Amino acid sequence: MSYDLERYQENGIATPIPVIGNAQAADICARVQAFRASGDSRADLALQASPHLLFPWLYALATGSRVLDAVEQILGPDLLIWSSQFFIKDPGDGGFVSWHQDSTYWGLEPLTIASAWIALAPSTPESGCMQVAPGSHNLDQLPHKDTFAPGNLLSRGQEIAVDISGMETLDVVLQPGEMSLHHVALVHGSQANRSTWSRIGFVVRYIPTSVRQLGGRTRATLVRGEDRYNHFQLTEPPVGELTDQSWAIAMDAKARMAAILMQSAAQKSRYASHHLAPATDSEG
Ligand SMILES: O=C(O)CCC(=O)C(=O)O
Predict the structure, then answer these.
(1) For residues 206 and 212, what is the distance between their CA atoms, to the nearest angstrom?
(2) Is 13 in the pocket of ligand 1 (CB under 6 A)?
(3) Do 106 and 214 touch, CB atoms closer than 8 A?
(4) Among 38, 124, 202, 265, which residue carries the largest CB count within 10 Å?
(5) What is the Å distance from ligand 1's center to 131 Cα?
(6) Is 251 inside a domain boundary?
(7) Whether 235 contacts 253, CB under 8 Å
């Protein structure tokens, strides 16, 4: 089975896609690790809250031509970045990601949305690479439950609340400088890091300008083409590293998004308690 861009519509995943060289990936990885070790009290939050709005070198990574060319093949020529975040698992920290669909709480429609997972360190079964269920993006929205489980890297520890153990899964193995692209409704998750290195993925969420945000107006940055819809609060790229201005913008972007995620979660749980089959434990 090949998971190339041509077969993305069928599989909901395209991987591996080389986007930057080894040396560049190592340089960016070192910058991220230096920031984490710097003692800056904002570090954890900054790496979660759309860091492409805080660091010009991450903005450059998220808008590199190889990245955008691949995203354009899937989403078309007019592209926004809606958000970005790091998923980092240090050796032995127990961090994992429960099986979920990104579409659950984002309040975006239609679901023509793709996430780039850019590896800055080897992402392998041993280091807890992302696992996906190819083709599962064609299922309807599956019911989720919030677990807030310790170690779960998702904000609400949300996980699929029906039995998915029969689904075939794929380990998305990536070397530094490679990325995968996954559909917003694809079932995915990942297990703990059993390796000796930190597994570091920079994840960027792309949408075409035509996508709408339900329940509020969030920020997004136009990275290719033109925006003829004005569905989002257009936000400029960062001009310097972690400036007061860019921090204020990133925090505002996060607050706007959080309001929608909360609203959407509340709606989903009301829906879930009335309409869904009882939750069972899911793997992941
Ligand atoms: O990094 C991981 O293991 C999971 C990433 C993820 O859930 C996502 O990119 O949506």
Answers:
(1) 13
(2) no
(3) no
(4) 202
(5) 9
(6) yes
(7) yes
Tell me the β-bridge partners of 160: 144
CA 39/CA 208 separation, integer angstroms: 37
Amino acid present at 135: G
User: In this structure, is residue 283 part of a structural domain?
Assistant: no
pTM of the model: 0.93
Does any ligand 1 atom lie closer than 6 A to the CB of residue 104?
no
- Alpha carbon of 86 to those of 124, 201, 208: distances in Å? 17, 6, 22
For residue 109, what is the domain's CATH number?
A: 2.60.120.620
Give the Cα separation of 231 and 219 in Å (integer). 9
Residues contacting residue 73 through CB under 8 Å, at least 6 positions apart: 5, 8
Is the shortest distance between the CB of 203 and ligand 1 below 6 Å? yes
For the chain, what is the domain count? Answer: 1
Model pLDDT for residues 45-104, shown as the tens digit of each residue:
999 999 999 999 999 999 999 999 999 999 999 999 999 999 999 999 999 999 999 998
